[in-house]
User: Fold Cyclase family protein from Clostridium ganghwense.
Amino acid sequence: MIIDITQVTKLDRVYRPGSPPLKVEKIKCFEGTKKEYTTTLFSCAVHNMGTHIDVMSSDVVLENERLISPGIKFDVSHITDRPVELNDLDVSHIKEGHFVFFQTNWDKYLDDEEKYNIHPEISMEVIKYLVDKNVNMIGIDTLGLGYSRNHGLIDVFLGKSGIYAIENLTNLDKIPKKDFRVYCLPMKIEGLDAFPARILVEF
Assistant:
């Protein structure tokens, strides 16, 4: 079975306050000439979208070998009033080179911007442990692995570590906790410090 865990980027949605949202419009090129044609123009701040990988530098190239690998999932949906700590997790399942996903079920609040923006978070203790284990990438079904100021701190730390955060996932409740393969397919666009991505899970 294949489950798409990619969240749709919604028109005019502000995921990150102050950032311009996705805009899509029809435009005419060579207007008024025999060469005239209509196409679609879209623009979006890369950190203000649905599922994306925060690589935090426009110089990052994700090797093909990293885009397909096994994964594990931690269901932490019962923890909403404090950060997820290391002793909340069965760390025996964590393997080098695996994707690690955190299921909070917060994607169910996507249409409630106020609720979605105040989300659970993963502690820096957990993040550092995963980096030490040399996992592949770390994903979550919220705006970020950290909340408020911690969001940026974790993104920068992971970027420097070469691990990277995957934000705004969905459907994590539809995949198993282990024994699955992840297909992570970022768009190949020059100059970005975050990659829009389609992510599929097979089990």
Remarks:
- Residues 149-161 form the longest helix (13 residues).
- Strands lie at 2-4, 23-29, 37-43, 52-54, 68-75, 99-103, 138-140, 165-167, 180-186, 194-202.
- The longest strand covers residues 194-202.
